[in-house]
Amino acid sequence: MTELNVQSVLSQPLQTDAMLPEVAMISAVNPETPGVATYTIELQKQEARENFRFQPGQFNMLYLPGIGEVAISISSDPAKPSELLHTIRVAGNVTSAIDKMGAGGTLGVRGPYGSHWPVETAEGGDLILVGGGIGLAPLRPAIYSVIHNRDKYQQVSILVGARSPEDLLFPEEYDSWRAHDIDVLGTVDRADSSWPGRVGVVPMLFYSLRPDPRRTTVFTCGPEIMMRFVVYEALARRIPKERIFVSLERNMKCAIGFCGHCQYGPTFLCKEGPVLSFERVEAFFNVEDF
Amino acid sequence: MNQVTPNPGEQVVIPKTALQNIMDALKERGYDLIGPTLREGAILYDHISGVEDLPIGWTDEQSPGSYRLQERSDERYFGYVVGPNSWKRFLYPPQTKLFSTRSNGDGFEVIVEDQPTPNYAFIGVLACDLAAVKTLDRIFIEGDIQDPHYSKRRENAFILANNCTEPGANCFCVSMGTGPECRGDFDLAMTELKDVFLVEVGSPLGAHMLNGAPWRLAGAMEVNRARQALAEAESRMGRTLDTSDLPGLLLDNLDHPRWDEVAQRCLSCANCTMVCPTCFCSDINDVSDLTGQETERIRIWDSCFNPDYSYVHGGHVRPNIRSRYRQWLTHKLASWIGQFGTSGCVGCGRCITWCPVGINLTEEVAAIRGEV
Questions:
Q1: Which end of chain A, C or N, has fewer beta carbons within 10 A?
Q2: C-beta atoms of A259 and B284 within 8 A
Q3: Can you name the CATH fold of A6-113?
Q4: Which of B290, B317, B318, B322 has the highest number of chain A CBs within 10 A, making it the mutation to test binding with A?
Q5: Which residue of A25, A42, A106, A271 to mutate against B (max B Cβ within 10 Å)?
Q6: According to the model, what pLDDT value does residue A12 have?
Q7: A289 contact residues in B (CB cutoff 8 A)
Q8: Does the pLDDT at position B73 exceed 90?
Q9: Which residues contact B237 (CB under 8 A, 6 or more apart)?
Q10: CATH of segment(s) A126-285
Q11: Structure pTM?
Q12: Does the model's ipTM exceed the 0.85 cut?
């Protein structure tokens, strides 16, 4: 049985002392878009490998000694927990060190942490998944879950946006998603002559849909400004705020609610987030510098 | 025949000098005594060996942005309130080594050393600070995940609490419902009377520590005198804070102009968070040896006033003092209640005293309430 309550999914840490990482190896690196690659991670201890389970939208803490630790969403299929993937954009010290290290490198893994996309509560209705840039990575496990249970959903649409055509994430998979009767729509902020598709920001893709607000659930992950407009478009179509889910990002040091960094009002994004219903975050969503 | 050991719940009287007997008993049992002592021009909690290390006959005069030691006209053992450090420093040290790693050819191994857990006996824990310890318990022990470092220290700690009869000018424990009387969660709790300590026994261990002291069961007169002293203390609080619906007040006023105003004064120096007995935020740093072969992972106190506290790729979520002060105050007084079921503030007044520009959170709240 999968956990239904998104607000209080208890993590199942790999270690009894939740701050201790498991040693893991990068067994493969798959370049995605400029500055982004997907890393296959193999936990060294067999027991840890066998016991590792995660839900779509959860994240791990990846650690490199002497460099630091970062929270990175899992981008692989929750039904294949042994094939653990993280899709990482080079952004800071740790991510560039992981990038330089490449296949064969060793890192520490703690997790999985956080709440997940409520794929079960969306069953029976329509689902719209909206990913901007690297924000599609945390959504991919949800996409795989939906595909495994495709008959439990009605209309499923995936809206993907990126800055430029070459920044579109996982383009080689779009056709396989479409093969499961999923609409995949893409758009880019800036096109070049090779791009036959839409130009514009992701929330605009809502104009191509006619969602039925009585049965539609929205999952979105991307830059906060993008999610703000996705929420706006969803609300404009009368989709109730308790069925709009965002994945928020803040600085995280511990991922277990001790370090304080990821607070979003009363919410610790590491424990009750990163996936939260808009209803839960509405009061703070438009507050500047919160 | 006289009782050898009082029972938990009983109140006894000991001469003031018998505090030394309790300390000796604690030391004999292997406790490391931590209590108030004069250090660096302030009364700090630190290692003490006996009553001679207590700041007997001293007091602390506090006001916003000011702390001064003064000699008293009497020989009170505990005639002062709280200084710039708190018991937090001992239960949740400013730096904690979490683990270390060592390179081993292909990669690295994680090494966890068994660190001995200190046996602290806290001497003179005031009611506000006792509430602060209980607040830290909620964070580090009573949640889904326990912090092993805090839990072990806390489990070992002996608490000799201290009912506060001399509140300071920045104190508002009555407003926060945390004092001046220590309610539960202590081994012993004393009230300093003119010539004696009235001691309430909170645990069998506490009772045991009285064995070597010349104690007798308290009489109604002494109990009444302690009651009266506490009632007087309650009426002499330096400050008040209207706590009615603080979450509503603060979280519904995130755009209040007062945040801009206080940002003009606040230096974002983080003093308030460092002296706060409940502020628990931490950063985690790596310290490597010169070869890079061995790395220690160190948890270190952090503050929401540090710009990097809110850094995510691309920038700082809270890039200015306005947003950082707002984060601190709304967390302390409002969102903390949603997180841990209690306020993050115990009314000790440290943040008011040790703010270099004298920002007084009770005034800031009153201003947002529209009362100033």
A1: N
A2: yes
A3: Elongation Factor Tu (Ef-tu); domain 3 (2.40.30)
A4: B317
A5: A106
A6: 52
A7: 317-320, 322-323
A8: yes
A9: B167, B171, B172, B173, B174, B175
A10: 3.40.50.80
A11: 0.94
A12: yes
